[in-house]
Amino acid sequence: MTKRHKLWGALILLAAFHCLILFAGFFAPYDFKMQNRDLPFAPPAHLHFVDAHGTFHARPFVYGLRSDLTDPSGYATDPSVMHSLRFFVQGSRYKFAGLFEAHLHLFGVEGSGPIFLMGSDGYGRDQFSRFLYGGQISLLAGLLAAALSLALGTVLGALSGFYGGWIDAALMRGGELFLALPWLYLLFAVRAAMPLHVAEWQVFLLLITVIGLIGWARPARLIRGVVLSAKERNFVLAAKGFGASDAYVLYRHVLPQTYGVILTQMTLLIPQYVLAEVTLSFLGLGVGEPMPSWGTLLAALQQYYVLTSYWWMFLPTLVLIPLFLAYYAAADALQERLKSVPL
Amino acid sequence: MAGKTLKMDSETQFGAGGAESLVRIERLTKWYVQRRALTRAEFTVHALDDVSLTIYPGATLALVGESGAGKSTLGRCLALLEKPTSGEIWFEGKDLLKLDRKELFPIRRQIQMIFQDPASALNPGMTAGEIIAEPLAIHREGTNAQRRERARELMEQVGLPASAKDKRPLEFSGGQRQRLAIARALALEPKLIILDEALSSLDLANQELILKLLADLQVAHSLTYLHISHDLRLVSEFADEVAVMHDRRIVEQQPAAELFIRPRSRYTQGLLAAMPSLESICDGRLA
Amino acid sequence: MIKFATKRLIHATLLLIAVSFSSFALLQLAPGDFFDEMRRNPQVSMQTVNTLRTEYGLDQPLPVRYERWLRSVLKGHLGFSLASNSPVTPLLRKRACNTLLLSGTATTLAWLLALPIGIWAAVKRGGSADRIWGFATSTILTVPDLVLFLALLLLAVRTGWFPTGGMVSAGTDDFDAWGKAKDISFHLMLPAMGLALATIPVLIRHIRASMIEALESPFLRAARGHGIPRARLAFRYALPAASNPLVSLFGFSVATMLSASALAEVVLSWPGLGPLLVESILSRDVFVVVAIVMLSSLFLVAGNLIADLLLFASDPRIRTE
User: What is the mean pLDDT, run by run of 10 residues, along chain A of 343 residues?
Assistant: First the structure.
């Protein structure tokens, strides 16, 4: 596979995944809050085409669930109850891409039987739906935090590199302060400084700000390096010779040199920051119940009985891995491209 | 040394009876402090030491000397790209070093610089048309359409096809890039153009071509050139006047003809002696 | 050497002071304090809360509090933990030792494995062995630390090979010193392995890269031209040349190890600074939080300082001042 194929493959995968998450409400059969108290820790459903009598059904279906304490999972399927899969059903209300309300879901089942594609958690909530909604929180947090970090890092790094002098010294010393702490401890410390009991959306914004603020130092250093070498280029000098102002030179000649670095950093930072949000939520320092960050989904695994008996609770982690892989592949490919650009 | 004959004409605006000077550099000095990388110890770098130079309009003054003598620094100070530590630069009756940014802005149109390496002097991300029009844009001259038109004109003047205006610098050859740089320098109709080793990176054929172009442009636009070079052979072909720099000072300044035949300073004599002349090479062969 | 060390030491101290002040200020400026929970409790009167606040000095202005704190730090007292109602220092001492034990073991384990593998991959670069290692490291790298630790936990619980959770088994007070040491080591295995696994891939990559750079340098090619056998080449020629970036890598690995250890300690239930930090944040136990942040910064700075000194000792180029 050539490098180009790798890059495009990764980008397509990322785009598909992000689309899925963006339209979580459509793809998820249930609301993330919806509980089924009588079906806690139900295993993932199997889709069948052939029923117990050997008849083939064109439309796939799931069997109903009933409690059965003789079975190790606590459940048994009831072949007498069949729920057909239907597409484009009307279901619970959700906000389409967070903008306007809709009721249309990609799929659902007839009747009352729930379809748990990824099983259910302790409150009987559909893990698949929660996974999709959780992606909205974790991915969005990662993206916004990365954007914040990069914006801050670029501005400070560019100022530092372009003007030098005391600005440079002050900013680099300040950056050293941020780099002097192991990032997780720094994350905790800044999180500790923020109020603990706040409304849902405020927590979200808070998390983004925290994660984004601690990470400006490394990108700033990189941008500073690029700016330092760019401002010595003769075409910058020539522009100055014409009488161009500092702002013009920065905007027209220096900053365009940084775009490659910014893009690459973006692809590297996003998975890191998504992970930061997941870690914080996992430890209870991020979004709280019932908000389904991927971290809170995984938090249940801290209890032994969940870890050993309910394997499907692990599934969110498996999906994290390809996501990160795609980002790293994209970052790799971008770095290769950067190197080949003649400067 | 085929081609051009040395100008022996004593009427080319020299001396007290001649026209007024275009630029008068007085006692320019520049030094700065640097740190050694590992030890952090400071040491002073002297770049210019009490340099005075006068350039007359319409002339082609060559500034020669070995590397490190301070030629480039002088050129950059004159082009207002660097600030000297002390001294004066008189241009059109004003000391440029005393002016502030705003006052300096219109004067920058009059003095332009062409660099040694054209590839680094042109932004690789911009098209040829954009590069040439940039000085016009900075000085807010004309509309977008007018600027594009002017760029087209300038390209034709320097011998580049106007159809190439959408190409990027890397798509041109070295000689063509230098023409591009010249076109850009002409955009604001300057009076003085400083060429900092502008021919050094070109092959011999291109050097001759560009020299011809520069000579034509000088006549067409009444330009004055300050030509910084370390290549004495080349200088002998086009210079009216030569100034020799050695060890951060001007050691000699003469009309070209006199310098080459009757050099006054010992250093210049040494320089000329070291220069291989075509006759001596040929003599050696044929003997 | 002394001059160099002194300069670095001063720099490190200034950095620590800046970190301490920043974290102290940050935490004190945060809205809410330790007694927030108490305030919500209707059974406790506001007056009691206020009295308690005054007692603990929480109503003083920031510079005063910092100054008092700094003074006591210099005396060796790191403040008072409101949650556990005891001074911070002894509380931290045990936990810090545990964290150091874990980090130290994991670092040693990681380098013991990564160094030979990295060198081997570099020597056999381009070959199938190198490619396999490259694939393995890339795979482990993409797995987030959190997932790695959870997976290990699952493995341990399912197979019962390792004790999970805690540092000692029940009833070990009766053991003798050797028994206790063995018990602790057993419990150490899982977290140390997890931590090592999390950091090994990055180490292997960097070691391999540094070794390759050394192996492809001109002086080494000349040595090969002299017919010096490959093993000798690698160890006596290339490795010393690569030691400069490797020592820097060591300093860097200390930093990542500390970060990862916090997470490992929480997930794999090792009683180190990590879990304590999380608890203290949740209960707003300000002095503990500041102390732990300071301590982790101290470890990091110390690690880098040692790396710098090692570099100074090993690389003569840095000595020529």
Answer: 75 86 80 78 76 73 73 69 71 68 73 76 83 87 91 92 88 80 76 69 77 86 89 88 88 88 88 88 79 85 78 82 86 76 51
Tokens 């002088």 correspond to B74
Whether residue B39 and residue C318 make contact (CB cut-off 8 A), yes or no, is no
Does the beta-carbon distance from A193 to C26 stay under 8 Å? yes
Contact B170 A240 (CB under 8 A): no
Residue reference for tokens 């502030």:
B100
- Strand B42-55 to strand B23-35: parallel, antiparallel, or no bridges (unpaired)? antiparallel
- Asked if A303 and A163 count as a contact pair (C-beta separation under 8 A), the reply is no
ipTM of the complex: 0.79
C-alpha distance from C316 to closest chain B C-alpha (Å) = 12
Mutation target vs A (from B100, B109, B116, B120; most A CBs, 10 A cutoff): B120
How far is it, in rounded angstroms, from Cα A174 to Cα A228? 19
- Nearest CA among A92, A142, A188 for reference residue A293: A142
CB nearest to C19's CB, from A177, A275, A328: A177
Q: Could you give phi then psi for residue A102, rounded to 5 degrees?
A: -150, 165
User: What are the sequence ranges of the domains in chain C?
Assistant: 2-88, 94-320
Q: Where are the domains of chain B?
A: 117-189
**Inter-chain residue contact C318 with B38, CB threshold 8 Å:** yes
- DSSP-assigned letters across all residues of B23-72: EEEEEEEEEEEEE-TTT--EEEEEEEEEEEEEE-TT-EEEEE--TTSSHH
CB-side neighbour CA atoms (13 Å) of A299: 23
Chain B residue numbers with beta carbons less than 8 Å from the beta carbon of C320 are: 38
Contact A51/A82 with Cβ under 8 angstroms? yes
Nearest-Cα distance to chain B for C15, in Å, is 21
Q: Which residues of B touch C318 (CB under 8 A)?
A: 38
In this complex, is the C-beta atom of B36 within 8 Å of any C-beta atom belonging to chain C? Answer: no
Residue C321 touches partner B, C-beta closer than 8 Å = yes
Read off the pLDDT of residues B101-150 as tens digits, 9 standing for 90 and up: 888 898 899 999 999 888 889 998 889 999 999 999 999 888 889 999 99
pLDDT in tens for each of the 321 residues of chain C? 677 778 778 877 887 778 777 777 776 666 555 566 556 666 666 776 676 666 656 666 667 777 777 777 777 666 667 677 777 778 888 888 889 899 999 999 999 999 888 888 888 888 888 888 888 888 888 888 888 888 888 888 878 777 776 666 666 666 677 777 777 888 888 889 999 999 899 889 888 888 888 888 888 788 778 877 777 777 777 777 777 788 878 877 887 788 788 889 988 888 888 888 888 887 777 778 878 888 888 888 887 777 777 777 777 666 654
The structure tokens listed for C149 are 């630790």
Quote the distance between the C-alpha of residue A263 and its chain's center.
17
- Name which CATH class applies to C94-320: mainly alpha
Q: Which residues are bridge partners to B23 per DSSP?
A: B55, B91
Neighbours of chain C (3+ CB pairs under 8 A): A, B
C316 touches chain B (CB under 8 A): no
Q: In what order do the strands lie in the sheet with B42-55?
A: B42-55, B23-35, B86-91, B94-95
Q: Using the beta-carbon criterion (under 8 Å), do C282 and A284 form an inter-chain contact?
A: yes
| Cα nearest neighbour of A239 on chain B | B135
Least Cα distance to A314 among A306, A322, A326 occurs for A306
C55 vs B: CB within 8 A: no
The shortest CB-CB distance from A241 to any of B79, B122, B124 is to: B79
Tell whether C26 lies on the interface with A, counting CB pairs under 8 A: yes
Q: Which residues in A lie closer than 8 A to residue B105 (C-beta atoms)? A: 243
- C40 at A interface, C-beta within 8 A: no
